[in-house]
Write a structure and sequence with these properties.
The chain is an alpha+beta fold. It has 3 helices and 4 strands; from the N terminus they run αβββαβα. A 4-stranded mixed sheet has the order 1-2-4-3, sandwiched between helices. The chain starts with 16 loop residues before the first helix and ends in a 7-residue tail after the last helix.
């Protein structure tokens, strides 16, 4: 099967716990209404994605999985524009019904910010 440049393969995922910890400790943090984004540069040469959605966000796995799919799809389509950076999304619970439109708008805003700036810390 031929690989496409916008494919979301295993090499694009943060898989080790140390990767998540270093993104939180060393990375720049951006707070949004529905999530926090931790980003730090890596020495791998490509952007990687990590997602954390607790059961507090929604008790329904269907909702949590939908949010993960949305984040992955946004990352997949914009990974070519990003520098060598680890992106860790920590979705936070809100006190009201989850707004998918607001979530997507904030994701677009966060990826635009990441594409323009280089994380100052990391490695």
């Amino acid at each position: 099967m031929k690989k496409t440049p916008n494919e979301f393969s295993r090499s694009r995922k943060m898989t080790k716990g140390d990767d998540f910890k270093s993104a939180i400790k060393k990375g720049d943090k951006q707070n949004f209404t529905t999530f926090s984004l931790y980003s730090c540069s890596n020495g791998i040469g490509r952007a990687r994605l990590g997602i954390s959605i607790s059961r507090k966000v929604s008790k329904k796995a269907v909702i949590r999985n939908m949010l993960k799919r949305i984040v992955r799809e946004m990352f997949r389509t914009r990974a070519g524009q990003l520098k060598a950076v680890d992106c860790f999304f920590k979705v936070r619970p809100t006190g009201y019904a989850f707004n998918r439109f607001l979530f997507k708008q904030e994701l677009i805003e966060s990826f635009c910010t990441l594409a323009k700036t280089k994380p100052s810390r990391g490695e």
